[in-house]
Structures are given as C-alpha cells and as structure tokens.
Amino acid sequence: MFDMETWTGGYVADVNYIYGYYPELNPMRAQLALCSAGIIVPKIEVACELGFGQGLSINLHAAASDVNWYGTDFNPAQAAFAQQLAQQAKSQAHLFDQSFEAFCQRLDLPDFDYIGLHGIWSWISNKNRAILVDFVQRKLKVGGVLYVSYNTYPGWAATVPLRELMLQHTEFMGSEQQGVIGKIDAAIEFAETLFAVNPRFASDNPQVEIRLKSLKNQNRNYLAHEYFNRDWQPMSFAQISHWLAEAKVQYAGSAHYQDYIDNINLTKAQQELLARLPSGSFYQTVRDFCVNQQFRRDYWIKGARKLSPLEKREQLYEIAVVLTQLRSGFEPKIVGSLSEAKIQPTIFNPLLDCLADNKPKQLGQLVQALKNQKITAAQVLQAVLLLSGSGALQCAQGEAAIQSARKKTDALNQYLMQKARSNAEINYLASPVTGGGISVPRFHQLFLLGCQQHQQPKSISAGELAQFAWRILSSQGQRLTKAGKPLETAEANLAELKSIAEKFLGNDLSVYQALQII
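Now predict its structure.
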C-alpha cells in the first residue's frame, strides 16, 4: 500500500492548494520597494520559486516577462498543472515535482538573481528550512534578492493554541472516512462547542473567538494547508534573521508597500519610540509589537549596496508605473494596521489624472508633470507607494519587454479563459505590461472570449455577450446568484449577465486592452 507520508513529510497532500496569485513574488515589485529604501536593485534575469503550489504565480511571471524561471513543488498533481500552463504559454519555465532536498541538490541549476518563498517557510520542518538556507547561500547571486513571506509573532501568539486544538482533534477524533475536509469541518465545529462553554482561554483572549468565526467562511483547501500541516510554526523576525544569517543575506525592506507609510500604521508615540532605536532586528521586533504583525513579506539582499541620494533619485525616476483600473469614479482606499490613509485630493487626483489612460508613466515624468501644481517629488513617491500597495498601480516593463512577452501571454490567457468556461477557480490573467497577473473574474474572462469570437468584436453588444456567456453556463446547468439566491429562469440569468456585461464594456474592457491582456 502506498504510504503518502514517505513523500509528503507531514505536509497536507490529500487536497490541492488554491489557485492563488501572489503579486509580491513578481520581481518587478522589488524595484520600487528596494529603490525607495536606497538599495541598488539587481537586474533580474534568472529566478526561482520554491513551493509554487498550483504554479499560477510562477507561470504568469514566466509568460509575462523575459525572466527565466525555475521552481519545484513536491505535489505531483500541482506540478503537472503548472507544467501544463508552461507548455501552453511556451514560456520555457523549468518546473519540477521534486522535494526541496532533491531539487536543491540538482547539478543543472543556474545561479539566481531572485529566489521567492511565499508562505512555505511557516509550513515546513527545520530540516527543510536548513536545506533552503543552504540553497540560498549557494545559489543566490551576490547582490541577488530573496523574498520570504511567513506567519509571525506577536500576531499569531494567541491563535497558536487554537490551531493545536484543531489539529489534535483531526488526529484523535477524526476518521479516515471523513477525508481531510470532513476532519477540518469537524475540528471547527468542536472548537465552537468548546468556546460555547466559555473556557477561560476564550475570555482571556477574545480575539481568538473572532478568528475562529472567520475560519468558517474560508476556503477549506486553504485551511488544510494553512492550519493542518504536521509542521507549522510562526516565527519572529529575530528568529528568521538568525536562520538566514548563514545564507549571508540581510534585511532590505518590506514587499508590502503600506509598511513604508508610518502614519497609517503607527501612533505618534510609537513613531517617537521607534525613532530612538537603531535599525535592525530589535527595531523590527518592536515595530511588529506595535502593529501586532501576523504576516510578514520581506526582501533580503545578499550584499546590499546603498545608492547615493543622486543615484536613488535617478533610478526612482526611471521606474514606470501603470494604473490597473479605470480612473473614472475611482476613490483610493488605503488601509494600514492603525487606520485608513487620509487621501489628499490635491495630490491624488492630479496623479491619477496623469495615469488615466492606463499607459505606463515613469516617476520622473509624473514628478515633472505635477511640479506646476506644487506637488513635490516626495509626495509623488508616497502617493505611488500607497496606490501600489492598494493594487491600483503596478510597476510596468519597458516596451521591448512588453512586445517580447506578448505572444506568451496571449497563449496562456487563451488557455485560462477556455478553462473559465467550466469553473471560476482561476481569476487572473497575464499582462505583459506589468510582467505578472491581473485580477480578471470569471464572467469577464467569458466576455473576453466572446469578444474574440465575435465577427466584429469592436461592435459587440452587452446583450450578445450575455447570450454568449449564458450558452456556456446553461449547457452545464450552472446559474448565477443575486443577493445570495440562485436565479432560476433563463430570463433572470440573461438580465443579470447583461447588467454585468454593460459595466464590462463601459469600464473594464478598455483597461484590459491597455494592459494588453487581450
């Protein structure tokens, strides 16, 4: 009998991971963060993602750029899907289903400018962590970037016992007949039963019951991987710094742009306290206490070199950004750990107006265009960071890189849109402009297919798009929902689809075209 424990190492493999896209893994994102921190950004030509899950991120990045990607995920079903995406895009991404130990010992791997580890650091054993640290030490080029995201303290401190409770329930109270999802449902139900009798732990840690309630609405495949692996360990910044010291990397900054804006994360008193501390591990620890950090997204550099003030300004001015949504009616909403940012219309409106055509603009161009409105370069940079952190802006590639990637993104997007006919699992398509993924919901993907297949795509109507999508949905017995209730009649479904299509044609299509998704 095949024993999955021999190859899973205690990691959940009975259910596949979700089809998520993680923009922090896009090397393009590192440019703005590192340059803002005054650090020289290497040219990223060869990259690696370890533990790529379903492989959506690595494939979107490989298709949408000239970066040569390598990666592995130990789950063969997930690796097979990732390989299929690479084949469809003809991106030449090198994707494997090997364990970290086997992959990291390969003799045919190049040295890397960039290595990405999204989330997996929290879910693996210390043995595998040591393998990854050794790999980074050996294979990350001098000057190269390491991206690591992980569950951290103090934000997870109170929730760790809840996770242990649920894991023990699956081990001692669950049965094989339930399957992984059934065990998870039973564990959550038992935890609710326990909290209903008012244990002292719940009253002393009221936020844990809030976390438990949120679990009920989360994707069970996500929960299986997030909470129910054998190895699962949040780690403080000091602990991960200790681990990564052997890899010769040093902390360079956050991939979460909002972290750079103190006013939306820290009180005035907290800012004054942190200002008295030297930068480094202790500073990060104290800051994590101030914001009750539970998930960090960090860049590390092997041999960080500082830019002079002049070099920093020149390189920042060369970075291009693009607005990834319609300007009309857009009101930025930017939330930090403390509060929502107070948007200054006198700064944000002129900036957004400059970007309203959804075409890339260099920061230098924006600074020059806004100078007459008495908006300083520092204000432009802060606004760009805030808007980028909210997802409204993304860094953009140069025209040569866009044209080089277009054939690959067209092929990959065509394949993903065809898959959207049967399910709504993948809600991202590739943009050669941003070098990565853009959120495109299922119905929009179907409408894009409809536009492609129409004899005169520029003149297609909302009614025609609704009919096209309804033929696909109705043939599978699928229905739309509205206000949480299924729409039963064809007329009701067509009316709702037409309403969605009208907004798509009036708003979203022009953005998708500008981002060269279609």
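The mean pLDDT is 91.
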